[in-house]
Specification:
Blueprint lengths: L8 E3 L4 E3 L2 E2 H5 L5 H10 L5 H14 L6 H12 L4 H10 L8 H15 L8 H17 L18 H11 L5 H17 L7 H11 L4 H25 L3 H11 L11
Helix pairs in contact: 3-8, 3-10, 3-11, 4-5, 4-11, 4-12, 5-11, 6-7, 6-9, 6-10, 6-11, 7-9, 8-10, 9-10, 10-11
Length: 264
């Protein structure tokens, strides 16, 4: 028989083992869910400073109101009230380049810029600014947006961003990704011709990357956090439904056009 090795967990008739510890006697009531999520992915227990930043990120990404993911979840529950899991999944499936995926995209952008840098990392803000100029200029020259810049609502500053920078600094967790992201905030106006805020999803990606998580995992943390927010929306939808009204208003706003007519 083939073997399927795992370091996550196992169980027998009398016990459940998770990460090498007895779940019932060593973890339950002693480890927070955030700490466990970090531990499961990193296969190491976070330091207090790392946990403070990690849980701050999860809180920052949990909800942002009636976003497309929340609407999708609510409408799915409207159509299939027996399928809570389907409604939750519908909301999570919308996590992409415009919503939720920015956390991964920003972390990947910063990691690529750092990997391309030759020599030691900068020792001061001027050096980080120079590296940021190179990264932003290359991104724009390739015809791509700079992930982590701008927000459709918080046009004058995302309230989450300074909090994450502050908690990371207080926790001793400001690494190269956050330093480069801060530099992007300083230098981008001269390159793109306007000033955009550093958004919360982007700074979350930078913070997670500084905790040692690879870019391929970062969107997963955004989805983990948003699952809590979506569950809240679904609980509210059960108490005070909005899905049927959203559907009815959309249906009334639809104007049918014969094929080929095009909008007038």
């Amino acid at each position: 028989m083939p073997e399927y090795p795992t370091s996550i967990g196992t169980s027998d008739a009398d016990s459940i083992t998770l990460l090498g510890h007895d779940l019932a006697t060593e973890l339950m009531g002693k480890v927070s869910f955030g700490e466990l999520a970090f531990w499961l992915t990193a296969l190491r227990r976070p330091s207090p400073g790392e946990l403070a930043v990690f849980e701050t990120v999860l809180v920052a990404l949990a909800d942002h109101g009636f976003t497309p993911s929340a609407i999708a979840a609510r409408l799915t529950l409207t159509g299939a009230p027996e399928s809570l899991q389907g409604a939750l999944a519908a909301g999570l499936l919308g996590g992409g380049s415009r919503y939720l995926g920015v956390t991964e995209d920003c972390g990947r952008f910063l990691a690529a810029a750092l990997a391309a840098h030759q020599g030691p990392l900068p020792a001061d803000d001027a050096g980080w600014d120079e590296l940021a100029v190179q990264a932003v200029t290359a991104q724009r020259a390739a015809g791509r947006f700079v992930p982590g810049l701008g927000h459709p609502i918080h046009k004058d500053g995302d309230p989450r961003t300074p909090v994450i920078f502050r908690i990371a600094a207080e926790s001793g967790q400001v690494g190269p990704h956050l330093r480069l992201f801060a530099a992007v905030g300083r230098v981008h106006p001269a390159i793109i011709g306007r000033t955009l805020p550093l958004n919360g999803a982007g700074v979350c990606g930078a913070a997670l990357a500084d905790l040692g998580f690879p870019p391929d995992l970062l969107r997963g943390f955004a989805l983990l956090a948003r699952a809590a927010g979506l569950l809240g929306h679904l609980a509210e939808e059960m108490r005070t439904p909005a899905g049927q009204t959203i559907y009815r208003q959309t249906d009334e706003a639809v104007r049918y056009l014969p094929p080929g007519a095009g909008p007038s």
